[in-house]
Amino acid sequence: MHPLDNVIWQALTTRQAHFAKSFQSARCFPREVSPLCAFEQPNDDGYTSLAGLVSPGESVGVFLVEEYKAHAGWDYVVGAPLLQMICENGSFSPSLPSSTSQVVELGTPDSPEMLELTALTKPGPFGTRTHELGLYLGILDQGKLVAMAGERLQVPGFTEVSAVCTHPDHLGKGYAGVLMAEVMKRIHARGETPFLHVRSDNARAIALYERLGLRKRWEGYFAVLRKE
Fold first, then answer.
1. pTM of the shown model
2. At what angle do helices 203-211 and 175-189 cross, to 10 degrees?
3. Residue range 40-50, pLDDT digits in tens
């Protein structure tokens, strides 16, 4: 199996196994880190195992090869076609357009501002401990966090770029490209290959990612499921 196939499972059984909550053939991140979960196989055993990690009424996110098919004990909440893109030979040249802005590394002290920005822009689930998954970079404008990007899933040889977002008042300044380029440059410097996930219908984001050298690798589905 390629490391990017069933990538959440691969992350939780390899480089990010220290985060994993496990039950039989299912794995989950702690809720405050990420709602992402996975099973070894998307069959009845997999869904039953996943149910052993989740409380009634709790929702989880899973990546699937096919659209979700009903399974006992689970309600389908929402989902979308998912595109996985990979950057083997990228262009990492964007630079900041404004001398008043600066790129900084983010950490635990910045968590409140990171949560505020992601709550406003909704790049994907972001919890109080999501920043522990890897490097996060931000752009400050007059001391306030206005854009960020970071790392999420990590598997042997590959690291995912995630949480790319910009405050609505600062769109159109190229901040997303600057941050993604810097995150990917640092991933490459470690001898790893950057990848990411995006909704297949997000044409604007896909166009940016292609300009940065990312290319389509896999198409599947993302589903949010709630345990009955």
1. 0.93
2. 50
3. 999 999 999 99
